[in-house]
Design a protein that fits this description.
The structure is a homodimer. By secondary structure, chain A is α/β, with parallel strands linked by helices. Chain A contains eight helices and 14 strands. The two termini of chain A are 20 Å apart.
Amino acid sequence: MPKLNIVKIGGAVIENEAKLLPFLEEFAALKGPKILVHGGGKKATLWAEKMGIPVQLKDGRRITDAATLELISGIYAGQLNKTIVAHLQVFGCNGLGLSGADGNAIEAKKRPVKAIDYGFVGDVTKVNSSLFVQLLDQGIVPVCCALTHDGKGQLLNTNADTIAAEIGKALAKDHTTKINYCFELPGVMKDINRADSLIEKINTESYQDLLLNNTISAGMLPKLHNAFDALHAGVAEVAIGSTKMMNENVPYTSITLK
Amino acid sequence: MPKLNIVKIGGAVIENEAKLLPFLEEFAALKGPKILVHGGGKKATLWAEKMGIPVQLKDGRRITDAATLELISGIYAGQLNKTIVAHLQVFGCNGLGLSGADGNAIEAKKRPVKAIDYGFVGDVTKVNSSLFVQLLDQGIVPVCCALTHDGKGQLLNTNADTIAAEIGKALAKDHTTKINYCFELPGVMKDINRADSLIEKINTESYQDLLLNNTISAGMLPKLHNAFDALHAGVAEVAIGSTKMMNENVPYTSITLK
């Protein structure tokens, strides 16, 4: 089966051009078929403030109302996504930007209202594998932003980590798939206050130990949960680490089933 | 040679959902390979006002400074383009949005500064025909916004009419190409104050007569000039008329060389 790398990059790198360009150069140099998934960073909040769109929070989480959705469609799918693609083209990487609506790439369902109404937030229901495969076969590098659609004309806000995992799961049938979550730390840390506490390997067994030991930070727990969900669906490896792990021989956290 | 329809739709339809949705339904029903090109309407100006971005005008034309470019990247390539694609998907049309950067679809050069510095405005230098052909062969309908790139990481603002014409010229070698400019009138009017003065056919000879008679409105002159430029480059027909001309047997202005 051909190899496939899915790389997800988050806000801290995206919103800082001094970090974004070196990252894109590294990503462009990554060999073989690959897909980039990106979040949005703080720009949505900045534009919302300038435009006088009130930020609605429930339990510390931002509600995606209609005005916010319009803004993030603009920023994630437009301004950020096209800036990223334009720079990848310079680095010789044939990027092509996609939201979930484009070519019906990623369908999602509006999260049902229970205790909280998150607004226009979508949970992925279907990834159009054949679209991704056709584009990859053409030498195109899909660049996916954190926006999906419900197939009925409604755009939806979806977490970029989730998008990376769902694309990985869909393509894992026919590709040896590695999902790379790039962020600002060397990887999953036993103790986030100790720079030397990187956990280099996590498997099903050691994951149970880590959960029992209660050593993982709250922010990392959902990422590990999603990682194992992807692995159980056939993804070969989930890597969590710095952007350097793409091309350099640096330590990072490698997560596999066994 | 296979037929190809390129349809360009302007601001007046785009910015009004009551007009946009019926148009997209018509476009979705248009048979055969097709490409949609869209402008931006007034939203960019509205968002600029809300965000306190000053409008710079020179000779009545807006200068595309960096802040304006960022805004239009967001609105044209993001919010509008993805809304259009999401709605096309509902109507069974497999739209996929593209700026010029995506897949290196359309390269442009920043307009050189002469009497006026228009800012980040691009003149098209190259259309990636093979990308368009590959997408069309996959049953995908490219949906192009009015944004190009210079191949060096710079996004550029380019006129949507021009984009439609340049794509037409590039694909005319291998397709019997018709460019359809849809707007609010029945077509080119001999007298814009007379609803019954539609000119149904214009060719090289009659175009000269129209120019000599000084009967065409100032706004229509550049459109006719561009139309003949496209025809001379191999485009088979340029149609100017209402959106109804796509699927209904209504009069419109058909422009051909002979």
